[in-house]
């Protein structure tokens, strides 16, 4: 789940620096042990990911150093700016409500 939250953040830039650090610390400690309570933003993003059953698209940088994703229907690498999924707008709305 941590990887999905970080991937979602890389698409929309939702998390603060402290929230990113909290997630990275969680990745480094054994399962079942938590580094404090998760921030509200992270809990809300987890719920969104579960609600939409969102799976991270395959992402890479092309030869021009632009971020692209593998479109599941066409099989083509497309600019990340064209990636559309309902979770993106809902996540942006959620973060603006929390702030």
**Helix content class:** 40-55%
Number of strands: 3
- What is the arithmetic mean of pLDDT? 86
Strand numbers in spatial order across the main sheet: 1-2-3
State the end-to-end CA separation: 23 Å
Q: Give Rg in angstroms.
A: 15 Å
Q: How would you sum up the major sheet?
A: 3 strands, antiparallel
- SS-derived structural category: mainly alpha
Name the poorly predicted regions.
Answer: none
Strand content: 5-15%
Order of helices and strands: HHHEEEH
Note the overall shape: globular
Count of structural domains: 1
Please tally the helical runs, counting DSSP H or I stretches of 4 or more residues: 4
SSE layout and pairing:
Layout: H1 2-12, H2 17-28, H3 40-52, E1 59-61, E2 67-70, E3 77-79, H4 86-98
Antiparallel strand pairs: 1-2, 2-3
Structural write-up:
The chain has 99 residues and is mainly alpha-helical. It contains four helices and three strands; from the N terminus they run αααβββα. The mean pLDDT is 86. The protein has one domain (2-56, 84-98). The chain has helices at 2-12, 17-28, 40-52, 86-98, and strands at residues 59-61, 67-70, 77-79. It has a three-stranded antiparallel beta sheet with strand order 1-2-3, with no helix packed on it.
Describe the structure in brief.
The protein is mostly helical and 99 residues long. It has helices at 2-12, 17-28, 40-52, 86-98, and strands spanning 59-61, 67-70, 77-79. Helices cover 49% and strands 10% of the residues.
Which tags fit this structure?
three-stranded antiparallel sheet; 99 residues; mainly alpha; globular; single chain
């Amino acid at each position: 789940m941590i990887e999905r939250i970080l991937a979602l953040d890389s698409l929309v830039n939702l998390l603060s620096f402290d929230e990113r650090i909290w997630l990275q610390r969680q990745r480094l400690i054994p399962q079942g042990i938590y580094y404090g309570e998760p921030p509200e933003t992270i809990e809300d993003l987890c719920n969104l990911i579960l609600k939409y059953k969102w799976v991270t698209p395959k992402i890479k940088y092309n030869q021009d150093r632009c971020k692209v994703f593998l479109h599941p229907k066409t099989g083509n690498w497309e600019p990340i700016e064209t990636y559309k999924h309902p979770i993106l707008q809902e996540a942006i709305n959620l973060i603006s409500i929390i702030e």
